[in-house]
Q: What sequence folds into this?
């Protein structure tokens, strides 16, 4: 092979290695049916949501959380969900941006359901391998009180599926809803298997036939903020709505900002700014990120050395 061609090949290999190390890949999503709180509020419109609960969520956490509807996650969860998310913070996954979703209210828009088989649809904006687990609250759940892990029936998930196939923008899988009445909540955890990253969502559901619970907002299980108007039925955002708000999202899976990794969080410790987001965007754990960058750097140095060697030989033959 001519010296100049060798140099071109070596340079191309080095560039490819660096590109592979820097290329981000991540997964994003939220439950679409039964619709999650964040998806519901996004569908209503971040700037002027219709329901009292979504207006309260925006007042507490701002509109950006709704534009980032597909990003309720922990980048280094690795199955440590109960260790990292404290009681009262399940719907936000202990993420300050999404704190409005943790509001204890009895008037969150709810999806009407019934006991028995149910087809779940999880809206996904970047598919990845992993396991979906959906839990239901126990009988006696009071939506006007902060959600605690003890209120979820963790021993009997209503759905568990590994590596479903995404189609039409959704992961679709089956489960069985338990015997319940009135308002309940379904908590979904998507734990990726190709990364420690996990996603979380809260979906309010109404089994019907329940007794009314007076909440701290002055509402009942079927009433709005005034205690008289019924809570609206839940509805997921349309493809058009998702596309319209994409430009305001900070959760693009095409990558943005730095890709530097950070050490894993300890239980209940806040994330450093950008840590979970950057780690999630690379689709890798801390160790994987450093290994990738280190390997790319080593290959690049090797390429440079080979480049110089080839060049000296070419010069010596002139």
A:
């Amino acid at each position: 092979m001519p010296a100049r061609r060798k140099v071109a090949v070596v340079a191309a290999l080095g560039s490819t290695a660096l590109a592979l190390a820097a290329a981000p890949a991540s997964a994003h999503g939220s439950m679409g049916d039964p619709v999650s709180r964040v998806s519901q509020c996004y569908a209503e419109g971040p700037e002027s949501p219709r329901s009292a609960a979504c207006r309260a969520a925006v007042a507490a956490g701002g509109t950006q959380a709704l534009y980032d509807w597909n990003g309720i996650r922990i980048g280094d969860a690795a199955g440590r969900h109960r260790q990292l998310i404290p009681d009262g913070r399940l719907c936000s996954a202990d993420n300050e941006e999404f704190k409005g979703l943790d509001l204890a209210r009895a008037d969150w828009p709810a999806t009407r359901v019934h006991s028995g088989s149910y087809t779940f649809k999880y809206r996904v904006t970047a598919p990845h391998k992993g396991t979906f687990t959906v839990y239901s609250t126990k009988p006696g759940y009071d939506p006007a009180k902060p959600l605690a892990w003890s209120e979820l029936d963790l021993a009997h998930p209503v759905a568990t599926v590994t590596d479903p196939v995404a189609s039409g923008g959704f992961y679709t899988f089956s489960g069985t809803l338990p015997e319940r009445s009135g308002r309940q909540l379904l908590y979904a955890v998507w734990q990726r298997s190709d990364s420690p990253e996990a996603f979380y969502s809260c979906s309010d559901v109404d089994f019907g036939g329940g007794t009314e619970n007076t909440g701290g907002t002055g509402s009942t299980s079927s009433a709005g903020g005034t205690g008289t108007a019924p809570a609206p039925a839940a509805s997921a955002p349309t493809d058009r709505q998702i596309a319209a708000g994409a430009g305001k999202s900070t959760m693009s899976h095409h990558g943005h900002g730095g890709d530097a990794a950070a050490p894993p969080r300890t239980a209940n410790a806040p994330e450093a700014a950008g840590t979970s987001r950057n780690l999630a965007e690379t689709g890798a754990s801390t160790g994987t990120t450093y290994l990738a960058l280190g390997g790319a750097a080593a290959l690049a140095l090797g390429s440079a050395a080979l480049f110089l060697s080839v060049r000296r030989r070419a010069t010596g033959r002139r």
Remarks:
- Residues 45 and 66 are 8 Å apart (CA to CA).
- The chain is about 30% helix and 20% strand.
- Helices lie at 3-22, 37-44, 52-61, 64-67, 81-84, 239-245, 275-282, 286-316.
- Residues 6-27, 212-231, 253-308 have pLDDT under 50 and may be disordered.
